[in-house]
Structure formats: structure tokens, C-alpha cells
Amino acid sequence: MPDPHQRTQVLTSARSIVVKIGTNVVTRPDGRLDKPIVRRLAEQIVLLTRRGFDITVVSSGAIGAGIGQLRLGVKPKSIAMLQATAAVGQPALINLFNEALRRHGLQAAQILLTRADFEDRRRYLSVRGTIAALHQFATVPIVNENDTVAVDEIRYGDNDILAALMCNLLRADLLILLTVVDGLMQNGELVQTVHRIDRNIRQAATAVTSALGTGGMATKLQAAKTVTQAGEAALIANGRTRNVLPRLLAGETLGTFFAPAGRRMASRKRWLALAVRPAGQLVIDQGAAAALRESGKSLLPVGVARVKGPFARGDVVRVTDPKGRLVGQGLVNYSSKELQRIKGLHTNQAADKLHRKRVDEVIHCDNLALAPRSD
Ligand code: GLU
């Protein structure tokens, strides 16, 4: 039975919050930045910062603002043009936030990231350290994708996902996705609480993509799923609603609340499970799947049935059971080539095959992030 107090509990105990602001919130239909709305949001952020919240903003709108600055009228099509448009719009966007925050004695700090920054563990940790330091300075980090350098393979292309990963990186308690609708609608009514992102919910989120931004309700659900899987909460609300942020945190039932799906996932496991794209896949047998899932064991060569590479030692791979259900994601101690040779073998045989005295686990349990059981 859903707990009606869960929303209040999460909101009253939240301290670190990621607020994602969509392109349509900060730009007007002609693509120009909407100064009054940015000022109002900045005021709300100032208020929350003064109350002791650590707020990290992920703001879209660089491309939107660039369209306005360059008087293009419509979103350009080519990647280079889009990147150039973002390069023009990003400083305008950050200036506007900075100017709005400075009226109240705070400053904006710009952080531009690509997917590669999340996948590289050292950079990932360095971003976390930098943001913690910015919070100590009582500044407001304002994150966006580094659109001018991000190419397809290293691009999120969508700040909903970037914001969800930022929430996980920071181990923030809550992700608030601000858009221009009141939340998720189902049969003409606002869904107040989502406990499980199932087929019904996904159907309600028929992907309506906006004119200037890239996301839609479907990617917002994906973002909410990423955060709730890690054991935190998410909210989708209307960024144009007066005083939306303080009102949400005061427990007003605005927007759609996504309750945590389970216990809080450890930080390293979040990175393994959610930030890194797997380089390959291991299909393991039923016995091994049970040992991993139920007893928290490490994966041994004997349990590996199929290897889909290529991948190198130290890469992150997906682990599935024979039916293709996800068991988890983890750091592998062998290359795909080595694993092809030792899969299905007992540890001694595997050592002989590789001419080693001893062999390691294929994936150590500390380096394996198990998928939630419902998947
Ligand atoms: N990074 C893009 C921008 O600032 C936005 C991507 C998105 O719409 O989510 O314009």
C-alpha cells in the first residue's frame, strides 16, 4: 500500500537537490531568454540556499538562447550549427543566471560536461569534489552538457538524463525536473505519486517533444527511473508555477512525485550501474545468477556461459541470466578474449589454461552493481 507520507518525509529530510530547468522554462517561444522567469527561479534558489539546501542546477537553454541571439527563428539542423548556436547561447544563459543570483549576493558557477566525464571514474569523482567546494563557497553550480564538443558517441543530448546522473554523482536526495507542464497526466488528471514506473505510466508519458528542447515526458520518466533505482526521489513540476521550488519543499502537492524504488545504492555501485555504458555482455548460468542475486557472491569463470565482446580487462560489462534478464553491471577482471578461453571452467582449470598460478573472480562482488529485482 503506497505510503501517503513518503513524499513529505523525503521532502522534509532532503538537503542536496538537483534542479533541472528545461529549455521551454527559460526561453520564450521566439527563442529569446525569458529574463523574468530566470530571475524568479534564481530568487527561489537563493531562498533555498539560505535555508541550507545544496542546490545544483542543470539548465538547458543554450541552444534556445543561441537561436534567439543569432535571430535564427528555428533550430538549425546540422550538428555543427547546433554546436555553434550553443556556443553563442551558453554565455548568455549563464550571464543571466549570474546576474539574477548576484542581485541577492550569490554567484553562478558554470560546469559543462559530456558523457565521457561521467564514464571516467577519476573525472567523475573530480566533478563531485568541485561541486562540493562550490557549495562551500555558497555559489550555485549551473551545469549543462558541453554541447560545443559533444559528438554523438559522447553526447547525452538530453539534460533530463544528465541531471539524473548528476543527482547520482552527488548522492543528492532529490531530483526536481522543471518543465512547462504541471507533471505527468493520465486520463486528463495529474498523477500525484508514482511508486513504480510500469507500462501504464510509460503509456501516459507519450513522448511529446518540445520545439526548442530535446526531452519529452518519456525521457523524464527515464531520468526519474535512474534516480529512484538508486534509492532517491524525483519530482516533475511546472517551472512557471509561482514559487514552485519552496512550495514543493514545503510539502505542497504540486507536480508528480516519484518515490524511491528501494534502498539507497552505494556510490560506487551507482557509477557502475548507471553512469557507465557497458562495453560488452556476459551471459551467466542460472546457478551463478542465483548466487550473485541471492548470496551476493562474486562471479567465477565456471558460471560464465557466453561472452559478447570485445572488451578489455577493467571494462564495465552487463551481466544477464540465460533468459536475458539483467543481473547487474560490473567491472570485469579479464578481457573478452581471455574469458572466451576460460568460461565454464573451474578455477583450477582456468588457471592452467591461462598458465597462471591462481585466477581472480571474473567480477568481484564489490565491483558488481546488482539490478533491482523487479527488472
Ligand atoms: N544542452 C542543450 C541546451 O542547453 C539542451 C539539451 C536539452 O534540451 O535537454 O540547449
Care to describe what's here?
With 375 residues, the chain is α/β, with parallel strands linked by helices. Helices cover 40% and strands 18% of the residues. The chain has 15 helices and 15 strands. The chain has helices at 6-13, 23-26, 35-50, 62-69, 79-102, 115-119, 121-136, 159-170, 199-204, 217-229, 244-249, 267-275, 286-295, 336-342, 347-353; strands at 16-21, 54-59, 108-113, 140-145, 174-179, 185-186, 189-190, 193-194, 233-238, 256-258, 280-284, 304-308, 316-320, 326-331, 368-370. An eight-stranded mixed beta sheet has the order 3-4-2-1-5-9-10-8, sandwiched between helices. Strands 12-11-13-14-15 form a five-stranded mixed beta sheet, with helices on both faces. The protein has a two-stranded antiparallel sheet with strand order 6-7. Strand 6 and strand 7 form a beta hairpin. Helix 8 (159-170) runs parallel beside helix 10 (217-229). The longest helix is centred in the first third of the chain and has 24 residues, at 79-102. It is globular and about 70 Å long. The model is unreliable at 207-212 (pLDDT under 50). It binds glutamic acid (GLU). Glutamic acid (GLU) binds at residues 23, 60-64, 86, 144-145, 147, 158-159, 213-215.
